[in-house]
Specification:
The protein is α+β, with helices and mostly antiparallel strands. It is built from 16 helices and eleven strands. It is globular and about 60 Å long. 43% of the residues are buried.
Length: 418
């Protein structure tokens, strides 16, 4: 029961009616993120996300918080490299209030000077918190090196220097340039009536259409080893190669390959490096897909004296994927793990709302769960073997380490997939 309407100005509205739920979730998805920022704007998408909760001509920041709390709901937002999302989850009877709040903050925020300064300080504290959390920071350092010289490699949150330069006028100008109807999707799921939802969204229909900006050039992955010296108890690392884009022809094989490599306690990395050898507390892999490119990244944290062995073991598992077809039982386990996790996640209205938006963003249509499951059922061991050989090569193999790393004997002669 999924319905789609395109407003006259180009905003796409998609909803899924789920009669047995009591909740309704709605998200306003804008196709803009850190990838689309100019050099002087690093972090401004994230800055705007914060500022839209600071007050409108109808509500103060306190009013916004009190109104959503008064109905037991959630009102929040997040910024990624390619998208910004503002969302709410409430009991279905309070959906009109949630839509009114979202419309007010997105269309009528004031960007008052005093609020700009206060939120600047909040974000500077957030930057400091990331700097103080090496197991978070290492992912940004890896991404910066992997997509070196491209906006995709820049930190979503920006830098202390860039955030320190923002003004309300800069934020407003960026919003007017990037928050265009053709780049907005509004998705909702739960106990939602589509026609009533479209009526509630009338304020968004007043947005004037504009010409979206080009996404820019396609980045090229950069190979290499980067070490960041810091006095820490552990060394944290990210090692990665090229991955899949959102629409990659072999994306289903990619997700299953990641599942069996480093997703969960039964994965190869977890079993070999933690369970069998006790070298780490945490080790995992993840895919980071984007519109046109992607990366596959492995994280681990270990004592300085064991880090070379950990890297060697990670590389051995990548080489094994290139060399040996996955056994039938292991592939079936990965298939069941991924499919089960996906289906269980769809028991909440917010996850279903997110899935509606993401399939529309990436494919321009809803992809039924049955179609997706069938695609995963068709993945073979040969598909995974071929994809591993296509992605895992020295031309995109990148390693970033932070901790007491100066004396760790790692160089290109050791860190390779040959």
């Amino acid at each position: 029961m999924i319905t789609k309407t395109v407003l006259d100005n180009g905003i796409r509205v998609i909803s899924e009616h789920i009669p047995h739920l009591h909740s309704a979730s709605i998200g306003v998805w804008v196709s803009t993120g850190s990838r689309h920022e100019r050099e002087s704007e690093r972090g401004i998408s994230h800055f705007i996300e914060h500022m839209l909760f600071k007050g409108t001509d109808r509500r103060s920041a306190r009013d916004i918080a009190r109104e959503i709390d008064s109905v037991g709901g959630v009102l929040n937002a997040f910024t990624s490299r390619e998208h910004t999302c503002y969302y709410a989850k409430v009991l279905s009877t309070f959906l009109p209030k949630a839509v009114d709040l979202l419309a007010d903050i997105l269309l009528n925020s004031l960007f008052a000077d005093e609020d700009v300064e206060k939120e600047r300080q909040v974000i500077l504290q957030e930057i400091g918190m990331i700097e103080d959390t090496p197991d978070d920071l290492i992912h940004d350092l890896f991404t910066r090196n992997f997509w070196s010289g491209h906006p995709l490699g820049k930190p979503i949150i920006g830098t202390a220097e860039s955030v320190g330069s923002f003004t309300g006028a800069m934020a407003q100008a960026y919003r007017q340039r990037r928050y265009l109807p053709g780049d907005i999707i509004i998705s909702a799921a739960g106990l939602v009536d589509h026609d009533e939802l479209v009526k509630l969204l009338a304020p968004f229909a007043l947005l004037a259409p504009g010409k979206p900006e080009d996404a820019g050039d396609i980045p090229v992955a950069t190979a290499g080893i980067e070490k960041y010296e810091r006095e820490l108890e552990q060394v944290h690392l990210c090692l990665g190669t090229r991955g899949i884009s959102h629409t990659h022809a072999d994306r289903h094989a990619g997700y299953l390959m990641n599942t069996l490599l480093g997703s969960g306690m039964s994965s190869r990395l977890f079993q070999e490096i933690r369970e069998r050898r006790g070298l780490v507390y945490s080790v995992y892999s993840y895919l980071s897909p984007h519109t046109d490119v992607g990366s596959m990244v492995i994280y681990a944290g270990a004592q300085e004296g064991r880090i070379a062995e950990v890297v060697e073991l990670i590389l051995a598992e990548l080489k094994r994927l290139k060399r040996e077809p996955v056994a039938f039982e292991e592939l079936e386990a990965a298939r069941n793990h991924f499919s089960g996790h996906m289906i269980l996640s769809l028991e909440s209205s917010d996850n279903r709302m997110t899935r509606l938006a993401r399939t529309e963003l990436n494919f321009g249509r809803n992809i039924p769960v049955e179609e997706l499951l069938e695609a995963f059922r068709k993945v073979t061991a040969e598909d995974i073997l071929a994809l591993a050989n296509d992605l895992f090569d020295d031309s995109s193999l990148s390693l970033a380490l932070i901790g007491r790393v100066a004396d760790i004997p790692l160089g290109s002669d050791l860190v390779n997939l040959s």
